[in-house]
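DNA polymerase III subunit gamma/tau, pasting as requested.
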Amino acid sequence: MALSLYRKYRPLTFSDLLGQEIVVRVLKNASRQNKFSHAYLFAGPRGTGKTTAARLIAKVANCQKRQTDPEFTKKGEPCNECQSCLSIDQGRNLDLIEIDAASNRGIDEIRNLKESVRVTPASYKYKVFIIDEAHMLTKEAFNALLKTLEEPPAHVIIILATTEFEKIPATISSRTQEFFFKKAYLHQILGKIKLIAEKENIKISNEALELIAASAEGSFRDAESLLDQLATMTNDAIELQDVEMVLGKVGFKKISKIAELLLKKDLPNVLEEIKIIEDSGQNLAQLTKDLIHYLRRVAVLKFNPQMTKIFEKDFLPDHLKTMEVHSKIFTEHHLNLLKSLISAYSQMRYSQFPIIPLEVAIIEQLKTKD
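Structure tokens follow.
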């Protein structure tokens, strides 16, 4: 069975972990000094590298080359050549136990973990437990885990990963080293999927890659999974319309075009564009959401042009220039338009006729007002 792209191109070293510079620096320094904590808590959005970082800790902690080569140890990275590193990459290392807390969330599962903690490693120096989606554990399960986190055996490292940090009890988080993972920037995701496409000989347009990266919302895994899905759809080059069809959303150019028509109060052409998009089967609620985000950024640029420096990380240069142009024609009246779109979006999600709230909101705001 073919390996999915996000697994095939999973980072093999800390340096490959993009977008998490602070986390990487701290973990590499700990690795250089062989000062591993007994417990870690990784929190952050999906697809940002939490489980990958946890597996890298397991690799460097048990890397056989690091244990015999002091000079290599100073690099703070796994060798990816020894039996321990290879067995982790291949998913057959007996001293790395991964637990999905979403489906193993009860006290019985944690009691089994506590029994397993007492057993010495099968082959290597450390026994590493990764508890994914840790916020899904029950209150009783968390209580059962407390003592193990407080006083684990010297041969054990426990790593909790969660997308919802606020659901982790303070009694648990206070017993761990906490690391917060942030969403990746668009240019980082775009760069990686472009590299994957080249290596896999996937023919794809730049516009299609841009929409994949933007729709991932900071998640490398989501972008790689979507690219994988699109690559199996056709033997021809993947174009923007292919991505739009799969996602049910439109690209930046269409969003910016509709936004410009809205800002210029060109009511007939706005309604025509929305009808065309509806007829093509696109998700109108998603379109409205994208318009809201676009106009919100245009408004921010209007009232604080210095935000351009921050938006540079999230947009391609030509896209940012388009928003800057639109910010010059944005007025305070358009704030009411933005509010109306937000109201329409909340209605559209539960309506059998999503185009109606959108059209009504636009007509109310764009009809001739003297």
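Note for the archive: The mean pLDDT is 92.
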